[in-house]
Design brief:
Layout (H helix, E strand, L loop, with lengths): L1 H24 L4 H5 L2 H23 L2 H7 L2 H12 L7 H18 L1
C-alpha cells in the first residue's frame, strides 16, 4: 500500500515539475531561464520523483509501475487548469480516460 502512495506522489511531483519548467520557459532567453528559480524547483521535483520511482520499482513489477505512471496525465490536466488557467475540454478528458483505461488493462 505504501508503494501505491509513493507512486501517486511520484506522478504528482512529475506533473508539478513540468509546470515549473513551463513557467521557467517563458522567462526570455537562455540566461534569463537559467536565472529563473522555477527551473531549479522543476529539476529538484523531477530528481525526487526519479528517486521515488527507483524505490517503487524495487518493490513492484515494472509491468505495473510503468503503465500506472500515466496517472501523471490526470495531475497535469488538473494543474494546468489550476495554475496555468488552461481549459479542460471534453476531448482532453476523453483522451486521458482512454490512457488511464489502457494503463489499467496493461497493469492488471
Amino acid at each position: 500500500m505504501i508503494y501505491v502512495v509513493l507512486l501517486l506522489c511520484m506522478t504528482f511531483m512529475g506533473a508539478a515539475a513540468s509546470i515549473f519548467f513551463k513557467k521557467a520557459s517563458g522567462s526570455g532567453g537562455l540566461w534569463q531561464m537559467l536565472a529563473n528559480w522555477n527551473l531549479y524547483i522543476g529539476g529538484g521535483l523531477y530528481l525526487a520523483a526519479a528517486v521515488m520511482n527507483i524505490l517503487v520499482l524495487r518493490h513492484m513489477n515494472y509491468s505495473v509501475v510503468l503503465p500506472l505512471t500515466s496517472i501523471t496525465y490526470i495531475w497535469t490536466m488538473v494543474l494546468t487548469y489550476l495554475v496555468l488557467k488552461e481549459k479542460i475540454t471534453k476531448r482532453k478528458m476523453a483522451g486521458v480516460a482512454c490512457i488511464i483505461l489502457g494503463a489499467v488493462f496493461v497493469a492488471f
